[in-house]
Amino acid sequence: MSFKTDVDATPSLNGKYCSGLKALPAVDSARVSVNKPRDIEGSVDIDSALKQSEPNATRWDYVIAHKSRLIYLEVHPASSTKNAGEVREKLDWLRSWLKRKNNKLSSYQNQFVWISSGPVTFTPTDPRIKALASAGLLFAGGHYKFK
Amino acid sequence: MTTLQLKKVGPIVDAEIEFGDLTVFVGPQASGKSIALQWLKLIADTGAVQEQLHNYGLDWSTEPGEFLDLYFGEGMRSQWRHDSEILWNGRPVNMQSKVGRIARSKTESVFLIPAQRVLALRNGWPRPFGDYDSGDPFTVRAYSERLRILMEKELGRGNYVFPQANRLKGDYRKLLQSNVFGDFNLEIDKLRSQKRLVLRAGGESDAPLPYMVWSAGQREFVPLLLGLYWLMPPAKVARRNEIKWVVIEELEMGLHPRAITTILLLILELLSRDYKVCLSTHSPQVLDLVWALRALQTHRASADDLLAVFEAPKTAPLRQVATEVLKKSAKVYYFQRSHGTVKDITNLDPSSQVLEEATWGGLMEFSGRANEAVAKAVANGLDRD
What we know:
Chain A is of the alpha/beta class. Chain A contains five helices and seven strands, in the order ααββαββαβαββ. In chain A, strand 4 (69-78), helix 4 and strand 5 (109-120) form a beta-alpha-beta unit. The radius of gyration of chain A is 15 Å and the shape is globular. The mean pLDDT of chain A is 93. The mean pLDDT of chain B is 92.
């Protein structure tokens, strides 16, 4: 069992596996850093993969396999209050998608992470950020470092 | 723009500080924040400091170490080494001649409210300068003496110290009453012949509460309030003209965030009166103010938007204060103990890749880690249900 095998076995993701961080365009891969690139087992652009089958869904952006854990990354603005609600909706969609039949990614340990795509108006002590953490979502500011 | 450079002074290896109208220092304990603020006072007010020491019978040789022990406190001479260097507005300060000869100007331009201000009151009354040991820091003794004179000459004639109709705007008084004093007034009481400050509830039968039974926050706050009274004289005088700088160390000490909010509003008042304000702090709330102020300035927000940060009433006097403050500059510096450097983190950008700036000098670190741990646990706990 490998991340690639599980991606290919998940109906909507078949053939969408990319090695390393290649599923992320350069502008987004620059928002993350990793000490040992070989710890990255691969990545998938979920948003693009499901665009045709679920055009109106609040789709999540990426999943990255790192040290046998899956890091779900959403790159989204963080400049207004409504952004927190938007990302929360995306998280709800992601969770329900993970629970679907034959989704082979559901058995992994997860981390849900929101990275800002621009200026940030939230701080870690903001109650909205705390509420998102309580819902399982980490707001990482403008950059996320794999640990 | 006023600048202060410190090289190899105490824990500071290299610091270059450019002061704004509001300047905030953050950093862990013993990283040099207080030393930098005390140097600001000493360099700007050398003559006034020397005069006060002389007036109380204190003397020193031309050797800088002896003077530094007197000014900073016993044992503090070790902060100055043979290769230490200070530059004030780009010009080197010659320590030997600075403290070795008596400065001509006796003007005082820096009003420093020290972190140890709680020591300024004993049994509810300010201690005189001479009541301290000669090894105690000058800034504590001088502050204490200032409060004593204020109490004797300006406040001690009436009964009420707070609230007072001619001290502080009515809006501030209401907020202080609700956020610091509760149902109590701050009054002058006499125990036999000894004057003392007490808290007393409104009812005539209510007994006075002496200093030792006040809450820790009230004990911390009262000496700060008295300092603010001095800076904001009654009636039509907006400020003490000779004072240009107000330095407040750790204004948040012992206080609930609501009380801190009220004090930050009073900081705006000081800025609107054209004082330059320098703060050292461990409170993210203080940095929240700088962050909000700069963002509101960038986006040309209104005075009401700034007042909304404080949930302050949108009255004409407060609008005027907020309007003035929106024109002021702010700077934030992080004192890094491990390297002895001082970093400009004024942008306070949570998305910055510079860790010290993103975590606001470490003040957000814990909160960030707590978010991460909770998010991780919830993500895996919920989805396994």
